[in-house]
Amino acid sequence: MIIRLPMHIKFDLNEVPEDLEGQVGQAFAEYTKGTSKAFTYQDKLCFIDHIVEELHKAGDEWDAVKGLLMDRFEYDLDNGFGLPDTDDYDSVEFMQDCYSKGREDGRLYHQFVDDNGVKDHHVYDKIMEIEYRAIKAVIEWEADR
Prior knowledge:
2 domains, two-stranded antiparallel sheet, 2 strands, 59% helix
């Protein structure tokens, strides 16, 4: 499984670079280049958001809503309900589902589900370690290095 982090950091999950923190620190230095030192904390938080987004494969809003609609259609068809009414997804309840999905995808602690919908805690544990190491590297980064 290929892991992607911001600023084009990419590696195989089974071959995590020993210098991951150094790579993340260098990527953050590039990310924040030219930004006033007064905005370092904002840059760090934004970069951490990008790390979470990359590791959790958060798509854009259109893809997320389309995925929820497709899941609903598939569920209804598989269970003999036919196509859902537009009222089923043009509703507050559907908007709540969309909001919940967005909130879940934005968390640091997140359950990893593979492309087949299977939770694999071994993969998840490795991803969480990478996430922790990358975030720690950003938090500890100092411009005077």
